[in-house]
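User: Predict the structure for this protein chain, please.
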Amino acid sequence: MATLRSAINSKLTGDTPFMASIPGGLYDSTEISRTGTPTAYDSRGDLKCCCVLRMGTASGRPPFDDAADEYIYLYFYQKPGSYTSIDAAMSAAYTVLHCAALTISPGWVCALIWGNDLGDSWDDALGAPMNYSRYKATTVRRDRLSAY
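Assistant: Here is the predicted structure, written as structure tokens:
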């Protein structure tokens, strides 16, 4: 049975243009580090453009007991210098995820909608540019779709 996290991960890793935009890779972890995510760095130790998938909070959709909203965050990083690679990767992710429909387990479907981007930020721990995109996933039982 697929989880929302694994379905999003599969959707992103299955898209060649998106993966080409993040040569440092897509990670399902909490942080980027030289020891935890060594392939995010090149042979000189510079951070390659990469992405971290993080799941946010989930909440019910009253009055329905068979639907939920959950936020998904994609954090993008690259070596200092510019945001060009990050911007291209965020655009590629939007193309893959916005208005995407995923089957996450038998009988359950999920619709993804882009929420917002945070641009031109800085990650102090990495000493690197960082941006994120937020998506909202609405998950519902397939047989209840007409109620929404």
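The CA atoms of residues 49 and 78 lie 4 Å apart.
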